[in-house]
Amino acid sequence: MAEVERVRMVDVTEKGETKREAVAEGRVKMKPATVDLIRQGRIAKGDVLTVAQTAGIMAAKETYRLIPLCHPLLLTNVAVEFRIPEKGDFIDVTALAKGVGKTGFEMEALVAVSVTALTIYDMCKIVDKSMVIEEIRLVKKSGGKSGVYVA
Q1: Distance CA 45, CA 4 (A)
Q2: Number of domains within the chain
Q3: 57 lies in some domain
Q4: How many CB atoms lie within 10 A of CB 59?
Q5: 110: domain CATH number?
Q6: Cα angle: 106, vertex 125, 80; to 5 degrees
Q7: Is 122 annotated as catalytic?
Q8: How many angstroms separate the CA atoms of 65 and 63, rounded?
């Protein structure tokens, strides 16, 4: 019986380095009152958006440690931004990951959004356990052989 290769890291040895960029987004739905508490800085754990933004940036830098077959990449920029509607029940999270490498930065952007959203949840769960993290997806990537992708 032949052995089946069950796991392998993609070999990028022969690929050329190119400038690459990826953008991901997601949403944290919550009670409007929770959004108001975040805006007013009245969440007991502190400044939710600053902590969440920092967590997302830090997580992007650790993607290869979190996702087993990801390559360690040299990020040249990670940015996390928020959109909070005037009257609404959600916070949108957008993350950009970019650098020069032999493979894309999609996972770094997706991890940044995911950990940012999880941090918002963690900091606000004391006032709103019904929050929902949803719609995490890649919205754009550029660089490499496959070129540009826009969702």
Answers
A1: 49
A2: 1
A3: yes
A4: 24
A5: 3.30.70.640
A6: 30
A7: yes
A8: 5
Q: Which tokens in the block code for residue 146?
A: 């496959």
In sequence order, what are the beta bridge partners of 77? 98
Given 89, 92, 122, 128, which residue is catalytic?
122
Sign of CA dihedral 26, 28, 32, 34: negative
For residue 61, is it within any domain? yes
Residue 74 lies in domain: 18-142
Neighbours of 107 (CB within 10 A): 22
* Residue 72 is assigned to a structural domain of this protein: yes
Tell me the CA end-to-end span of the chain in Å, nearest whole number: 43
- Residue 4: the pLDDT is 76
The SS3 of residue 104 is coil
Residues 38, 35: Cα–Cα separation, whole Å: 5
Which tens digits make up the pLDDT trace of 20-61? Answer: 999 999 999 999 999 999 999 999 999 999 999 999 999 999
Exposure string of 125-139, with b = 16+ CB inside 10 Å and e = fewer, is: eebbeebebeebebb
